Amino acid sequence: MEIREIEEKDNPAIESIIKRSLESFGLDIPGTAYFDPQLSNLAGYYKGLADSKYWVVTSKHGEVMGGVGIAPFGNHAGVCELQKLYVKPEAQGQGLSKQLMNTALGFAKEHYTHCYLETMEKLRVANRLYERLGFRKLDRPLDGSEHGTMDTWYMKEL
Length: 158
Fold this sequence. Notes:
Layout: E1 2-5, H1 11-24, H2 42-47, E2 53-58, E3 64-72, E4 79-87, H3 96-111, E5 114-119, H4 124-132, E6 136-138, E7 152-157
Parallel strand pairs: 4-5
Antiparallel strand pairs: 1-2, 2-3, 3-4, 5-7, 6-7
């Protein structure tokens, strides 16, 4: 497996991974990443934002298996958001999410003081990973949240 920055050619594969994952949890609803306008062009979206990146993890054959992004969060100085961490079902359980998170958090530490993320309580495996990596649960979302359906929020000091 290789982790690298997203390229234009990866856009359809990662969009499909994100949408299929959300569908599998019944989260293909408004207020989730499913309806983010930039979902079909993540490479262009992240390239156009300062202090932002999106990475994909690929198999030895070059197939996109998942991804994760970091971008500034609203008007909160020093705060980034961990975004769109998804891994194909057949690649789960191999530590890819943790590797992606470590890559993203390493980048975040160079540009931010805190990392925020929004998720759903029913995504228990992901939430355990966030907690193991030092994220602390918040009582409510930060001001400026765009995903109103989310019911669980985390913050990590970098």
